[in-house]
Specification:
The chain is α+β, with helices and mostly antiparallel strands. Helices cover 49% and strands 19% of the residues. Helix 6 (164-181) links the parallel strand 6 (148-155) and strand 7 (188-191).
Length: 208
């Protein structure tokens, strides 16, 4: 015969445990949402870094890219910050769609975006498609807003040190070489394997 006191105590413990599980689940969802950029919906710097590290650990043949919008400041200056926000939101949506289910998009801040995707034989073509996608005009309150995108990418397999930090450094250098010799992001550059990568200065936008 079950002791009523013990039964009551057991029920109380189970109820308390269930309450903590529910609370923990809600807290996890809240923290997970806090990892998203509230404007664009992509991951924030820290949220993206954690997920990128996991992807790289599982898929050594991954690629990291950085995208910097060209002509974004004039949009803000001429049409105002709400118009600029509309452009950033559109870019975040397009980058997320381009990454698909096997990649992760993030926003470093301002008009700089980052992504990690699985490398494949079509990566060069896919990057060209992304550059064209980001260049498509954005409609905002009857106004057509146009920006470009300079994109630099690096394959982990091409780097002497296949880490997220090294990939970001190589992609960053590639992106700024593109930005220095092209207008409106009409070209992109895939970083080659640099033999002396460790000795090159790295303009890091993201700490892994």
């Amino acid at each position: 015969m079950t002791d009523p006191v013990n039964a009551t105590l057991t029920l109380a413990v189970l109820t308390l445990a269930g309450g903590w599980v529910l609370h923990a689940s809600r807290l996890y969802r809240l923290l997970d949402r806090s990892g998203h950029d509230p404007l664009t919906g992509v991951w924030t710097r820290d949220g993206w870094t954690r997920r990128a590290e996991r992807i790289i650990a599982r898929r050594p043949r991954a690629a990291v890219l950085l995208a910097d919008l060209d002509g974004f400041k004039p949009v803000n200056d001429v049409h105002g910050h709400p118009a600029g926000d509309a452009v950033l939101t559109a870019m975040g949506e397009r980058l997320t769609a381009w990454c698909g289910t096997h990649g992760v998009a993030g926003r470093l801040g301002g008009d700089e975006f980052v992504a990690v995707v699985e490398d494949d034989a079509r990566l060069d073509d896919r990057l060209a498609d992304l550059a064209e996608l980001l260049r498509q005009p954005v409609q905002y309150q009857g106004v057509t807003l146009s920006v470009g995108a300079s994109i630099g990418a690096a394959r982990l397999a091409d780097l002497p040190e296949p880490t997220l930090s090294a990939a970001l450094g190589a992609a960053d250098q590639a992106m700024y070489r593109v930005k220095g010799r092209t207008r409106r992001g009409r070209r992109l550059l895939l970083a080659p394997a640099f033999a002396a990568l460790r000795s090159l200065p790295q303009r890091m936008r993201l700490a892994a």
